[in-house]
Amino acid sequence: MEKINNLRRILKNSHEAILIHSPENRRYFTGFPSSDGYLVITQDDAVLFTDSRYIEAAQKKIIVCRTQLLTRLSGEIKAFLIDNNIEKVYTETEKLTVSLLSQLRKIFSSIKLTPSQRLEKLISGMRSKKYSYETECIKKAQAIAEAAFDHILEFIKPGVTEKQIALELDYYMLSHGAEALSFETIAVTGKKTSMPHGVPDDSVVKNGDFVTMDFGAVYNGYHSDMTRTVAVGEVSQKQREIYETVLEAQKAALGVLKSGVECSFADKAARDVIIKAGYGDYFGHATGHGVGIEIHESPNLSPRSENKLESGNVVTVEPGIYLPDEFGVRIEDMAVIEKDGCINLTNAPKELIVL
Fold it and tell me: What is the pLDDT of residue 73?
């Protein structure tokens, strides 16, 4: 209920309401996952309208608001707004398509429908600062992913394909408590490790290769995210040098994380290490991003970010160096921000592992 009450701050009077349509935000505010529905919030009431596929489950699970069967948009929601004398409805902006906005305005023709950046910013800010139970869900998701990492170290060997590695990680996570995967698992080897978001295929692991794996599990709606790069058989001096540089950069960024620190400064801490080593042109993405109900949330540890870290943020720290047509290295942990530092939620080893 606290989340919904916080959202009510943007309502100026009893004639205004909020309509939440995106699955991610519906789940955030109600705790109930569904592919369909609308959460409508007024100063004195909150109702999740959803169709016959979900209504029974929603009625049994949701305790923060009322639930009501939705048969058609022009029916129950419109009647609810009219009965409550609502004249203006604020909506999300980032996940609102032109088509849906047009449809809603046509249906609610007598009510002013207003896509609100202020609402979007409020929701983003709320979601970026995790409650303790949210952090616990992320920890459990991460524990599943780390168990998968331990398992995959026994699986990787010369002759195994990228697809086989990715599928083995996926199967392990889904069969050991994950309700879903955080995203399509990345598992690349050899020269393909220079592609930050390379797609697994039938490429075969060979002696002397790096293998980079970026993966995560979902637990109770919350995502985890980790990346590890391991070596197979042997490593060259250059591979070891690049790996140690990335690890130093990651530790540098983790070392400055705390409430009040500018996100761009956290990015700079990692980037300066890589630049000093002469590889600044080979680190093209941001150092990290927020994680929660979605795999990418606010805040971003980016050179262009104007935000500051706050207690309760959960962010990734994932610098990398990618040498085209040679190899790449990325190391990624997640950390929860506190007043005087951070707690690293990732316990998997990150010193160079040679299989």
Answer: 78
* Domain carrying residue 54: 2-128
What span, in angstroms and rounded, lies between the C-alpha atoms of 65 and 4?
A: 9
How far apart CA 188 and CA 151 sit, in angstroms, is: 17
pTM: 0.94
pLDDT digits (tens, 9 = 90+) for 24-48: 999 999 999 999 999 999 999 999 9
Q: Are 99 and 28 in contact (CB under 8 A)?
A: no
Those residues with Cβ within 8 angstroms of residue 192's Cβ, 6 or more apart along the chain or in another chain: 162, 198, 203
* Count: domains in the chain: 2
Single out the residue of 335, 148, 333 nearest to residue 226, CA to CA: 333
Residue 270, pLDDT > 80, answer yes
Q: Average the pLDDT over 286-315 and give the result.
A: 97
Per-residue pLDDT tens over the stretch 326-352? 999 999 999 999 999 999 999 999 999
Beta-strand relationship, 46-50 and 38-41: antiparallel
Contact present, 195 and 188 (Cβ < 8 Å): yes
Q: What is the DSSP string of 283-343?
A: --S-SEEE-SSSSSEEEEE-TT---B--TT-EEEE--EEEETTTEEEE-BEEEEEETTEEE
Q: Residues 36, 215, 307, CA angle at the centre, nearest 5°?
A: 75
Map tokens 């080893």 to a residue.
349
Strands 217-219, 222-223: pairing is antiparallel
Name the 3-class secondary structure at 207.
coil
Residues 309 and 266 occupy one common structural domain: yes
CATH code of residue 243: 3.90.230.10
Rounded-to-10 torsion of CA 151, 155, 161, 162? 20
Is the distance from CB of 250 to CB of 317 less than 8 angstroms?
A: yes
> What three-state secondary structure class fits 123?
helix
